[in-house]
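Chapter summary example.
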Amino acid sequence: MNMCYTDQVGRFMNRPYGITEEHAVDYPHRKPIRLTEYDYASPGAYFVTVCTHDRRCILSRIDVGAAISRPQDTPIAVILTPYGEIVDQAIRNIPSIYPHISVDKYVIMPNHVHLILCIHGDDAGRLIAAPTVSRVIGHMKRWASKQTGIALWQKSFHEHIIRNEADYRQIGDYIASNPGKWAEDQYYTE
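The structure predicted for these 190 residues follows.
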C-alpha cells in the first residue's frame, strides 16, 4: 500500500508504508510546468497542446495526397476519426460551458490537439471570475474521455501564455500549417 505524506522539510514523499528513509527509493519528481506566480484565470490568450495517451494516432488522419504530384497550394485535409469528432465537439462546447472563454483557433492532429484559448473580461473590460486554463482543459479532457469510453489523454498538457499580437499571429500560423507539416512534427509517429 502506497502512502503520500510530507517529510520534515515539507517535500511530498511517495513510498510504501513502513519503508524508512535509508531504504526508500528516490522517486523522480515531476518538474512544475506552470508559472508559480501567474494567475491562469486572468484574461488573456493561451496556446495549449494536449496529447493522446501514449501518443496514439486515434483522433484524425492527415490526407496530404501524393507528395510528388501535390501542388503547394493544394489544401491538406484533416479527416477526423469518431474519437476526433468527439474531441471536436468537446472543444466547440467550451464557450457554452464557460461564457467568458473562447477557442479562437484549433486543429485536431492524429495524436494531439493544438488550440488558442482566450479568457475575456466582462463588457467593460473588468476582470471576471473565470475558471483557470487547467480547469477548462481538464473538463474538456474528462468529457471527451467519458464519451469515448477510453483513456484518451496523457496526464497533463502544455500551455504557453501568448504575450502579444506577434506571438498570437505566429501561433495562429503554426496551428493553421501544422497538418501540412505532420511528417516533420515533433509528435509525429507512424
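To summarize the output: The longest helix spans residues 82-97.
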